[in-house]
Amino acid sequence: MSVNPTSAEIAEKAATKTVSETVEPQGARAFEPPAQEPAPPRLFEEVLLAVDNVSLRFGGVTALAEVSFDIRKGEIRAIIGPNGAGKTSMLNCINGFYHPSEGKITFRGEARRKMRPYEAASGGIARTFQNVALFKGMSTLDNIMAGRSLKMKANLFWQMLRFGPAMREEVEHRRVVEDIIDFLQIQAIRKTPVGKLPYGLQKRVELGRALAMEPDLLLLDEPMAGMNLEEKEDMSRFILDVNNHFGTTIALIEHDMGVVMDLSDRVVVLDYGRKIADGTPHEVKRDQKVIDAYLGVPH
Prior knowledge:
single chain; alpha/beta; Rossmann fold; 6-stranded mixed sheet; 4-stranded antiparallel sheet; 21% strand
């Protein structure tokens, strides 16, 4: 009797094997990744700056109405809200450009009721602006060097002589500026007048000038306004590096919600000059008042 299988047996075996290997075992299910949970918030305890029931009025117009929140040392604090919500007015109060009609602002435990911008700057608060505020005819290096002016001790006489203590001091400050230029990766434009630079690079130079002041609190007013996607990614990376590597506390106004949710530790939301929410990005984006007033996501 022949031991070789017939063609019919071969076909039957092949069919059986194909079915057994391709049919999913009973009860098996495709893998479904768990729902992504928000990263646990970083914890900050020391309050660097506190805003206590601040109101700001211009005649019959109320720009801010009894706003209270704090900025803690080491965090990235976002201030968001629709246009006209009072965000820039709040930064102007913090750095002394405006004085609150009511309430107080406390910086490092000291109430600053009538603080002037130069006092804020010398006290450790630096600022960038919604509209770039640079010396357009000066080079990148000279613009950033201007941020060191409050750190210079030599008087006008020694600065005019250009030797001795003034020269040694300038060498030291220039070394700091060169480090900032390297950090921001703008070596190629260090001698270029900033008026000839594209908008994204001008924003980076303005950040460099603020960093040259070695601030404890850095205020960024829409640092990514008008930027394309690549420029936003670069600026986001620099902001994170400033916070992580230098330990600089940052308060920023930004309309790009993706940037806000990725960068910030806590978010305060203003609407018509009033605070309507305050918390972690995860909490704020789920707050119905914020959704109705700003995010525009349907119920």
